[in-house]
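Per reviewer request, we include the raw input and output of the structure prediction for the construct analysed in the revised manuscript.
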Amino acid sequence: MKFWTRKKFRGVAALRREVNLTRIPIETKESIRWLENLKQSTELFEKPSQCIHIGDREADIYELFCAAQEVGTHFLVRTCVNRLAGDGDHTVATIMDEVVVKGLHRIEVQDSKGNPDQAVLEIRYRKIRILPPIGKQSRYPALTLTVIHADERGEEQKED
C-alpha cells in the first residue's frame, strides 16, 4: 500500500494557463505515481500477463500505456483525451464512430431526482493504432490498443 498526499493543491486550470502539461516530462509530474504503482504491483504479482490495472480519467496517460506494454501487463482506463489515431489524420472518436455496435448493455442508474432508472449502452470495440501526443512522438512509439467504447443510446433509439 502506498499513501500519497499533495503537498500544495493547485488547480489544473490555473496550471494550464501557465504551461502546456503535455510538454512536461512525466518524471516531473504527480502522474508518475501511476507508472510507479503499475511497475511495483506487476513485480510483486510476478505474473504480469495476469494483471489488469484499472484507472479513472486521471490514469489516461500515454506513458502508462507504454509502461504496461513494456512489462507485458494489461490495463483498462476511462479516457479523457481524444487521441490521434490511425495514420494521424483521425482521432479515436472519429474511428469509433465508424465501428458497428457490437452489443447493448442495460445498466441501473439514477435520474436527476435520484429515482432508479435504466440506461442502455451501445458497446463498440476495435484495435486501433494510437499515436503519442505530438510533443512526445520522438520519445514514445505508436501503440496498437483495443478501444472499448460505451455510449448511452439516445432516447429516440432506446429499446422497449
